[in-house]
Amino acid sequence: MATLCASLPSGAAGNWCKITANLPSGPLWWAKLQAEDSARGHVVREAFLGVCRVRGGYGRRSVLVHVPRQSQALTLHVFSDKAAAPALSLRRLSRIGAACALLAHGWRKLPSALRGDARGRFGRLRAVLGQAPARGGEAPPYRVWIDLFDAWGERELAALAASGAPGASFEVAVVAVGEPDALAATRRSLPAHWPVRVIDGQADWRGLGADWILVVEAGEILAAQAGACFSLAVRRQPDARGFCADLDTIDPAGLRRKPELRPPPDPWLLQTDFFGRGAWLFHRRSHENLWPRLPANADQARLALARATPAESLRHVSLILTHCPPRPRRSAELPWRPLGAATPRVSVIVPSSCRSRHVLRCLRRLLATTAYPDFEILIAASGIATASRTQKKIMRRLATLPHVRVIDSGIEIFNYAAVNNRVAARAQGDLLLLLNDDVVPIAPDWLHRMVTYVCGQNGPIAHIVGARLLYGNSMVQHGGVIMGLANLCEHAFRLTDDRDSGPQHLAKLDRRVSAVTAACMLMRRSLYESLGGLDESFAIALNDVDFCLRAGLAGASIVQAASVELYHFESMSLGRHYQGGRAHLEAIEVRRLRQRWGATISADPYYHPCASLELGREFQPGFPPRQTPLSWISEDTLAPA
Hints:
Blueprint: E1 2-7, E2 16-24, E3 29-37, E4 42-48, E5 53-55, E6 58-66, E7 73-80, E8 87-92, H1 95-106, H2 110-114, H3 121-135, H4 142-149, H5 154-162, E9 170-175, H6 180-188, E10 196-199, E11 212-217, E12 221-222, H7 226-236, E13 242-250, E14 256-260, E15 280-283, H8 298-307, E16 314-324, E17 346-352, H9 357-368, E18 375-381, H10 389-399, E19 404-408, H11 416-424, E20 431-435, E21 439-441, H12 446-455, E22 464-470, E23 476-478, E24 481-483, E25 489-491, E26 511-512, E27 520-524, H13 525-530, H14 543-553, E28 558-568, H15 585-602, H16 629-633
Parallel strand pairs: 9-10, 9-11, 13-16, 17-18, 17-20, 18-19, 22-28
Antiparallel strand pairs: 1-7, 2-6, 2-8, 3-4, 3-7, 5-6, 11-15, 12-16, 13-14, 13-15, 20-27, 21-28, 22-23, 22-27, 24-25, 26-28
């Protein structure tokens, strides 16, 4: 891998530019461009260059990028089997030239951006075209990632051997029912000195004698370093009672494909079959009563053992240690069980300037599409002192709607956090739902479903619940927040089709996350009050992220409820977060978030350290990753990028 830094020519900053890199066409190569904004203090533009075009003996790759106004230099990472620095050129585009180039990159996405509800259409179009060049870049294939970042050479194996091993003994339970060839392949991948028990019937689980039992399925191939890595994990975390690792598939030719860089196990994912595949290591004596009753099915046995283990005793080894034969992943969405007779009251807080007629339309649809029996809607109005005729008319009409109270927050210059805090003190419900005035439900049971998470009716208790939000054309707007994505924090799976289940089906699965958007966020009022509400120093945005991170630090669980879907006609009330008179706040709030939560931004605990931080490549291998085998062994979880 080679890295090239280039200064920007005069006039490039703040404009759309075409960046081109030329490299002799002999080696296969890929490249990723990064541009840092000094005002925000982090990389704000990141994109893989496009498909390689061979001209004149050179391999040419290019990308269209809007260079930040405060940027002074560009960084190019080159991924190749030969370290080489390409020749880099930059051409600034005119407004018309940039518009034409963006249309050329994004024209295939135009029909999906334009279809659906007209509300928010301009915002969708802007997002799709603006991100089309970056999303259209060509990332290196998985085999290149293996060679560059997952290779276990002499240095890695020597460091692993020097790290020590626990005194606990290991025994491998290989589940095999009528598959002699698959069993033989698994046996060949195991160290010769490891005792192996073949499970081909229920009674065979009895009599396991080792301290730790490694459960694998016949046909699964363990990496050569798997045993030593699990041993090191046990030594480091002696209180743990179960360990899982990552996996990929291996085809009949021995080629590795489709890596699964998993989030750590959590109670919501464990309710599905998400963690059924791949090797698991369990402490035998902690599951003494369960072993005799386990079925002769590897997936079911591993899930039964994992579900019987307290969630705080499960650990994730963030390395690919199992190579599995190809097998389609089953959809693992949870069945929903409705609440009983007790339905706690929900206070829905809707901050609004009440200046747009769409607010009235959204509120009417909210009332018409909500079947929950006990809720109130508090319109947290701001800027009323100088209200226009239209604003007063909209407020009067809102006040006539059932379940609705219009409350003057007393705030003239809009501050999202302050408006919510003022009105939350007037709420009557046990539960608080923060909801934007441009969000509308899709199904009548949406609020009922969200309440079940907080009340524990559908399984574990979630302290904060976020919904899956869709644009008016059914493209995803919010699928949970990943810290570090886009080098700060971003919504997962943004601009993907609603029908796309995403890598490992994670776009459709309920799971723990570090944060969710306050465009639709449910919690107990007692939690909101105990944390002092939203931090009012984040006046426009990022207040929801800061709130969730503070809640997580206090022990609260934040869950992305993928089965609850609503439409979000983004930024229709106030426009984009940071525009006009609010533009100067962006750099201030971004720096404040980074200063307060820099460690979490660098290492989201619910996101894989080897996964990409580029938009559109969530849970796919990162180039470069934040973790390598050497950094994992040395417990330095953040390898230099």
